Amino acid sequence: MVGRARRQGTRGLLRPGSRFLPTKRIATAPDIAEAIVLAATNPNVTGTVLETDGGAHLTA
């Protein structure tokens, strides 16, 4: 498993599961960065958890 993970990388291992997500893809680093910027710069976002899971919490 470790050898396979090194060959494919994390994205390669997660890609098959992405077909079950509403967005049909896994988040990229820029996607996560946008959520961080939103949380850090919007004064109306207080005490909340931003889900950046491609909608997985909607299908579970």
Topology as a string of helices (H) and strands (E): HHH
Quaternary form: single chain
**Average residue pLDDT:** 77
Helix content: 40-55%
Largest sheet: none
Number of helices: 3
Q: Can you put this structure into words, describing what you see?
A:
This protein has 60 residues and is an all-alpha fold. It has helices spanning 2-14, 29-41, 56-59. It is elongated.
How is this fold's topology laid out?
Layout: H1 2-14, H2 29-41, H3 56-59
Keywords summarizing the entry:
elongated; 3 helices; mainly alpha; 50% helix; 60 residues
Give a brief rundown of this model.
The protein is mainly α and 60 residues long. It has helices spanning 2-14, 29-41, 56-59.
